Amino acid sequence: MAKDPVRVLVTGAAGQIGYALVPMIARGVMLGPDQPVVLHLLDIPPAAEALNGVKMELIDAAFPLLKGVVATTDVIEACTGVNIAVMVGGFPRKEGMERKDVMSKNVSIYKSQASALEQHAAAGCKVLVVANPANTNALILKEFAPSIPEKNITCLTRLDHNRALGQISERLNVQVSDVKNVIIWGNHSSTQYPDVSHATVKAPHGENHVRELVADDEWLRGEFITTVQQRGAAIIKARKLSSALSAASSACDHIRDWVLGTPEGTWVSMGVYSDGSYNVPAGLIYSFPVTCRDGEWSIVQGLSIDEFSRNKLDATAQELSEEKALAYSCLS
Ligand code: NAD
Ligand code: LMR
């Protein structure tokens, strides 16, 4: 029997990530090849015409799984009945703007979109925040949508996770699909900590540890980390635009694994509400290693953390605490 369509909201849908993401969702990359979808696309009035163009292209592509498109600049219409919300829309930093100015704009966007989701989304709606500052936007959304369970509000660090897999695969000249269990800890920013302490590469009989295969701790603790931390800036320098296809693809990976589950023995990185695991302050949206089952994520427990890693986990937590304080100061 055919499944009922899932309603997926994409905010900022007329932007460049939106343009890469919506066809992926409509092709089943996010929710599977047998899952029909209805797309809800939101953008702001100056982008209404471009948004309508995206809708026209979605119709023209004749995706078999796509059962409808709601393209609107009305946040309530956009949020009504949605089962999954991918929050890509936000206010970008412009020349001459202070950090606080950008934070203030995004805090007010995420505050009002939180209320619309809380009141109008379907019960159990899962939320993924992509727009920067992703962790703190997700935190504000959580604060202003108190009836949405905190487990349902996450932010995207899967792109950083995939970037780390990519760097290891290039370095070792192995298939990226054979590398697993890297971890991104903390903020989706240059203080994030890409950690390979527990990462492995598939071997003919079992698995080998990345640390043993690379056997160059200086690279693993130096260039590898900074390359992943600064990859977003490197893409902007090269493209004169921030990452879009890799961000869209990683957003699909995030939701797919959350809804359909992570493979046995594999974890992924997600920005989730901290419960104090690994002595990360509770009450931050922080990227942890997680496994997913039956539509729920759980933080992987019991991993050993050496002193080098501890310092890095704490530094990115400190930055998130400062961002949280800044966001709250914008509310008052
Ligand atoms: P973009 O400027 O091309 O698109 C953003 C869209 O959001 C625009 O169409 C804009 O009109 C819309 N928008 C602005 N305010 C809105 C609002 N209140 N409601 C709905 N829509 C609104 O930007 P992009 O390249 O698509 O990137 C989107 C965001 O994703 C940026 O914040 C970027 O920094 C972030 N990003 C995050 C990651 C990650 O891994 N977390 C990776 C790449 C980019
Ligand atoms: C990325 O990681 O590619 C983006 O978050 C960069 C950015 O500043 O938009």
* Class from secondary-structure proportions: alpha/beta
* Main sheet makeup: 6 strands, parallel
Ligand inventory reads: nicotinamide-adenine-dinucleotide, (2S)-2-hydroxybutanedioic acid
Helix content: 40-55%
- Order of strands across the main sheet: 3-2-1-4-5-6
Poorly predicted sequence stretches spanning 5 or more consecutive residues:
none
Secondary structure: elements and pairs:
Blueprint: E1 6-11, H1 16-26, E2 37-42, H2 48-60, E3 66-72, H3 75-79, E4 84-87, H4 99-120, E5 126-129, H5 134-143, E6 153-155, H6 158-172, E7 179-180, E8 183-185, E9 193-195, E10 200-203, E11 206-209, H7 210-214, H8 217-221, H9 223-229, H10 231-239, H11 245-260, E12 268-273, E13 285-293, E14 296-299, H12 307-331
Parallel strand pairs: 1-2, 1-4, 2-3, 4-5, 5-6
Antiparallel strand pairs: 7-10, 8-9, 10-11, 12-13, 13-14
Bound molecules: nicotinamide-adenine-dinucleotide (NAD) and (2S)-2-hydroxybutanedioic acid (LMR).
